[in-house]
Design a protein that fits this description.
Layout: E1 2-8, E2 31-36, E3 40-42, E4 50-57, E5 74-82, E6 85-92, H1 96-104, E7 138-142, E8 145-149, E9 157-159, E10 166-169, E11 186-187, E12 194-199, E13 206-211, E14 217-222, E15 235-236, E16 240-245, E17 248-250, H2 252-256, E18 262-264, E19 269-275, E20 284-288, E21 296-301, E22 307-314, H3 327-332, H4 337-340, E23 342-350, E24 355-360, E25 367-370, E26 382-388, E27 395-402, E28 408-412, E29 417-419, E30 423-426, E31 436-444, E32 449-456, E33 466-469
Antiparallel strand pairs: 1-2, 2-6, 3-33, 4-5, 5-6, 7-8, 8-9, 9-10, 11-12, 12-13, 13-14, 15-16, 16-19, 17-18, 19-20, 21-22, 22-23, 23-24, 25-26, 26-27, 27-28, 29-31, 30-31, 31-32, 32-33
Length: 475
């Protein structure tokens, strides 16, 4: 392996930092690398071509009060495959907030687990305001540029996907919304459109927008809600987008007093099914059992015109505080997918009758789905999930779900090895939906090393076709 240090930063975090989400598998990095001639165990398939991007939280500075793992500064990892060879780069996302804190050499913004009034400056980002846009939640690619994003809404930061060269903030030619953009925008592979939403604490509380494959904001409309909500993801079909109004949201009385307290309310879940270029007047609202959903598999229109939506139903979205736990431990229970009871679930909406039907598709605890991107918005057969760790936020394996037969095949990583969300890469000219590769980054806490593992998506139990060594263990 050939390694070049691109840039190294000095961290102000405590040298003996024992925070559970700044140590162990979550230990942040401070060094940016260029690496090539990477060491490979196995053989990289010659037809695997392109770049696999991953966003991670890597806090450089100590926190203002309690640290939440979603506060960490974004760092992108890019491993590029060409003709059976691999190269790697990683870079911090140079957000305006990170630049300001590096210049001040101190944290300036309070994180998710603290009151915004602790923020030391009079400006910020996010749906609740006065937060740092860490741009560490998600990354997608539109019009040849990687766009990193923040779950509480903020800027979209542009980077070259292969070189990770900083290309500045997205502007959409001066029409970028003042309300920002949430993480998990979607790109329709057939139209090239970017579909996005945002949310906040002022009416109408949500917006939905469309950016063309030429980079023009061609549609932006209100999605009126009864109050402030906390949506995290969206889905789309050929003709519709699906947005949500879940009963887990900031308590209105606490919010009026400046406190941001998540509570589950005695209300149904609501789904807004909106034509892709529709407005508030065109929304079809559907009700369903109360829950909260972090991530969707996919959505599609069936032969009878019904809209099918698959995602992860939480049976206990707001776990009650336990008196035997510390404040931090109670906060981190919101990260334990076992505590929240996250199970794969299907909602079917019938526009003709306004009726919703729903059911669990399996009783196992699963989350963080990936599908063949060619099937986005269309009927599909296979989904791949992360296997969550019990008791904390980590992934100890992954699973393949055949939605036609209901069969779920799982692969467990060795003890002390943790994975990232997987991505599905169709083989060139592939016919079958699972004629593809499945990629994930692995962090081995035993060997203090990371690799990129490449699996045959048709047979994940056969083990990796290749594992490619990285210069340093990633978060």
């Amino acid at each position: 392996m050939q390694i070049e240090v691109h840039r190294s930063y000095t961290s102000t975090r405590p040298p003996d930092d024992a925070h559970p989400y700044r140590s162990g598998a979550w230990r942040p990095q401070t060094t940016e690398y260029n690496a090539w001639d990477l060491d490979v165990d196995g053989r990289i398939p010659n037809d695997l071509a392109g770049t696999y991007l991953r966003n991670t939280e890597n806090p450089l500075l100590d926190s203002l009060g309690r640290y939440h793992p979603f506060d960490g500064d974004g760092m992108l990892h890019a491993i590029t495959f060409v003709d059976g060879e691999a190269s790697y780069r990683n870079r911090f996302v140079r957000t305006d907030g990170l630049a300001a804190e590096l210049e001040a050499r101190e944290p300036l913004w309070a994180g998710l687990a603290e009151r915004p009034t602790k923020t030391k400056v009079d400006y910020g980002w996010g749906a609740r305001g006065l937060m740092k846009d860490a741009s560490s939640t998600d990354v997608t690619v539109h019009r040849g540029l990687a766009l990193s994003s923040f779950y509480m809404c903020g800027e979209l930061y542009r980077l070259d996907p292969a070189t990770l060269t900083d290309e500045g903030r997205e502007t959409w030619r001066g029409r970028f919304p003042a309300e920002g953009v949430s993480a998990h925008p979607k790109v329709d592979p057939r139209t090239g459109e970017l579909l996005f939403f945002n949310y906040g604490t002022e009416a109408p509380y949500m917006h939905y927008g469309v950016v063309s494959d030429e980079g023009e904001l061609v549609h932006y409309t209100d999605i009126p809600l009864p109050g402030s909500r906390l949506p995290h993801d969206m889905a789309f079909t050929e003709n519709y987008v699906i947005l949500n109004d879940f009963p887990l949201y900031w308590d209105p009385e606490a919010l009026a007093a400046g406190h941001y307290v998540n509570r589950m309310h005695d209300e149904p879940s609501r789904f807004a099914v909106v034509p892709r270029r529709g407005t508030a007047a065109d929304i079809m609202w559907f009700e369903a059992d109360p829950t909260f959903v972090l991530h969707w598999n996919n959505a599609y229109e069936d032969a009878d015109g019904r809209i099918v939506l698959d995602g992860f139903f939480q049976e206990n979205p707001a776990p009650a505080p336990r008196p035997d736990l510390t404040t931090d431990e109670n906060i981190f229970r919101y990260l334990d997918l076992y505590t929240m009871g996250s199970k794969i679930h299907r909602w079917t909406f019938d526009p003709a009758t306004g009726h919703t039907s729903e059911e669990h598709l399996d009783e196992r605890i699963l989350e963080f789905p990936a599908i063949n991107p060619d099937r986005a918005g269309l009927p599909y057969r296979y989904a791949y999930y992360a296997l969550p760790c019990s008791g904390w936020f980590g992934f100890e394996g992954f699973a393949k779900h055949d939605l036609h037969t209901g069969e779920i095949t799982t692969v467990a990583f060795p003890a002390g090895v943790f994975g990232s969300e997987a991505v599905v890469v169709p083989r060139p000219g592939s016919g079958a939906e699972d004629d593809a590769y499945l990629l994930t980054y692995l962090s081995d806490c035993n060997a203090d090393a990371s690799t990129c593992a490449i699996y045959d998506a048709a047979d994940i139990t056969a083990g990796p076709l290749a594992t490619v060594a990285l210069p340093e263990r990633i978060s």
